[in-house]
Design a protein that fits this description.
The chain is an alpha+beta fold. It has helices at 21-27, 29-50, 70-87, 118-129, 139-145, 217-235, 292-319, 328-339, 344-360, 365-381, 388-404, 409-423, 426-439, 444-456, 460-471, 480-493, 497-510, 515-527, 531-544, 561-573; strands at 7-18, 53-59, 62-67, 99-111, 114-116, 135-138, 154-159, 168-173, 181-184, 190-193, 204-207, 211-214, 241-243, 251-260, 263-272, 277-287. The strands form three sheets. Strands 1, 2, 3, 4, 5, 6, 7 and 8 form an eight-stranded mixed β-sheet that branches. Strands 11, 12, 13, 14, 15 and 16 form a six-stranded mixed β-sheet that branches. A two-stranded antiparallel sheet has the order 9-10. Helix 7 crosses helix 8 (328-339), helix 15 (460-471) packs antiparallel against helix 16 and helix 17 runs antiparallel to helix 18. It contains 20 helices and 16 strands.
């Protein structure tokens, strides 16, 4: 018996493919084929040969190449991406060919003209993780090229890749001047394609059309209508890009519709393309005889949940890396997300994150708005006014953010919150809330701001309706304790003191020892005739804030003097020091 000897050798494997290949072929099959072939013949084949590499497999949308030197492989990839950027200058978005490249180092099995082995499989997986116009390499490659290639790779963290047993630490690079692709949907709305969060772009989300598991034609029509409503709402989200293809997204949302008689259930799921894991699922129920308003409300709940879950994942993913390694988008995403928690430690961390962004980019409207928001959070959660100088700076930052980007729902929200709490200008705050909602009708924080201005102006019932809608947007939203506080204020204003105390208590259970919440508990219990509970909360407030005096309490933005007097009267009944 004879056995054939298997030839193995160490090689750097480069895998490249075209971003959005299916979309491009669907739009212009022959033109796409010719453009890809021209790029391969005029650029890829000569460049790979010049760097002493060899193409051993061609696919319709990509290729695999082998290099004896990993430095040659990386140098070649950098040249390819920089040149592709130049070749695409002036090319319309719907015609441009963007490439992503993955590089791995390992043993390959040689068979005639082909190559096999895990090293090649991993190179292909790295290419799938690469950003449009970018390169993704393994930790082994990065170690080998350290000090030998004059470019800096960004740490993409540990990733669990399909059919790869161990987690892999990956690193990313994109050429200067590379930007996320932009495609156009049928309605002419700009939708961002590609640009994963770590590339400096916003986190991207793809939405698959909702399927129908059970039901009749009504269920099919419901799924179609809901899919359009959800897609429309997602397109308005600040901080998240809606993309056209799941493979080009950081996150992929999918769902299904089932009907049971007169009722329906929508189940939504989220997949993280970094980890290849589904990390969230939730169902939403309703009546099959739904109206457009009900459909919009359902889309509101789904999109609010998706927005929170994506940023929760983004915050956890980027927290593991040093601040210097993180892009401005990643730093701002963390800073805005953690501010929702109302804890002073989170406020202080957000300042650190945003100061770094502002140092890099002094006119970044989002960073300026987040910094102004942080100043407002400190006022709302505490009990003293900020200094006139600090208030002036916060208002200037918030106003400048709206001037830099007048179409940002977030910038208008922050400006509204600042004029409400720092200037007590209810009319200006309401205008900013309405402008934010014109830009994004499903923005829970802006809905809550409109509710606050309505309540503080004296219309408790109208304000409560808005605040209740904001509160019901997502059960896991970290700012729900803010909404609960506002539910307490609305009930206090309408004289339902026990309900006010109950809402304040629920808020306190989420984030305890915030002076704002304890003050609501004290005055609500006092007016409800629950002196013991009011006294107990007063003791807790004094332990947290030993220097508290009622005379130092900042004026909450009640329009009517009698409402403010009633609020402070409850504090005096609880024998807080004046």
């Amino acid at each position: 018996m004879t056995s054939e000897r298997i030839e193995r050798r160490l090689a750097a494997v480069l895998a490249a493919d075209v971003v959005g290949y299916s979309r491009l072929m669907g739009a212009d099959e022959l033109g796409t084929f010719e453009r890809i072939r021209a790029h391969r013949k005029e650029l890829f084949e000569p460049a790979i040969a010049r760097h002493r590499g060899r193409i051993f497999k061609l696919m319709g949308d990509g290729l695999l190449a082998e290099f004896a030197s990993v430095v040659d492989a990386v140098s070649c990839a950098v040249e390819l991406q920089r040149t592709m950027l130049q070749r695409n200058l002036g090319v319309p978005d719907e015609r441009r060919i963007d490439v992503r490249i993955g590089i791995n180092l390992g043993d390959v099995i040689v068979e005639d003209g082909d190559r096999h082995g895990d090293a090649i499989n991993l190179a292909a997986r790295l290419e799938q993780l690469a950003r449009p116009n970018g390169i993704c390499i393994s930790n082994k490659v990065r170690t080998e090229i350290s000090g030998k290639v004059d470019i800096s790779f960004e740490n993409g963290g540990e990733q669990r890749l399909k059919n790869i047993a161990q987690t892999i630490t990956v690193f990313h690079w994109r050429p200067e001047g590379a930007a996320p692709l932009v495609a156009t949907d049928a309605a002419g709305t700009g939708i961002r394609v590609g640009g994963p969060a770590g590339s400096g772009a916003k986190p991207s989300l793809a939405l698959s059309r909702l399927g129908v598991l059970d039901g009749d034609s009504q269920a099919i029509h419901l799924a179609a209508g809901l899919n359009e409503a959800v897609a429309s709402s997602l397109a308005n989200l600040t901080g998240i890009s809606l993309v056209t293809e799941a493979n080009d997204a950081n996150y992929h949302a999918s769902g299904s519709v089932q009907t049971y008689g007169s009722r329906f259930r929508v189940t939504m799921k989220l997949l993280n393309h970094w980890s290849k894991k589904q990390f969230w699922s939730e169902h939403f129920d309703g009546d099959i005889a739904t109206t457009f308003d009900t459909l919009d409300d359902l889309a509101f709940h789904i999109c609010s949940a998706l927005r929170y879950e994506v940023y929760e994942q983004e915050t956890e993913r980027t927290r593991l890396r040093s601040l210097e390694e993180q892009t401005n988008e990643e730093l701002m995403g963390q800073a805005s997300h953690i501010l929702l928690n109302s804890r002073r430690s989170d406020y202080e961390r957000s300042v650190t994150l945003i100061d770094l962004v502002v140092k890099r980019d002094p006119n970044n409207f989002m960073a300026l708005a987040i910094r102004a928001w942080g100043a407002m959070v400190e006022v709302v959660c505490g009990y003293r006014d900020v200094s006139p100088a600090d208030a002036k700076v916060a208002l200037q930052l918030a106003r400048k953010a709206t001037e830099l980007n007048g179409r940002s729902d977030f910038a208008h929200l922050v400006y509204g919150l600042n004029v409400l709490y720092l200037k007590r200008d209810l009319d200006a705050a309401a205008r900013q809330a309405r402008r934010s909602l014109e830009l994004n009708p499903n923005y829970a924080l802006a809905i809550d701001l409109l509710g606050m201005t309505t309540m503080y102006a004296g219309d408790a019932e109208g304000g409560l309706r808005e605040c209740k809608r904001a509160l019901e947007a997502s059960p896991r939203f970290p700012a729900n304790n803010w909404f609960m506080d506002n539910m307490a204020i609305g009930n206090f204003l309408r004289g339902d003191y026990l309900s006010a105390a109950e809402w304040a208590r629920r808020s306190d259970e989420i984030h305890g020892d915030i002076p704002r919440c304890m003050l609501l508990l004290i005055t609500s219990y006092a007016h409800a005739g629950r002196a013991a509970e009011a006294g107990g909360e007063a003791e807790r407030l004094m332990q947290a804030c030993p220097d508290f005096r009622i005379r130092d309490l900042r004026r909450w933005p009640f329009l009517r003097e009698q409402d403010w007097a009633r609020f402070t009267d409850g504090l005096m009944q609880a024998r807080l020091p004046d």
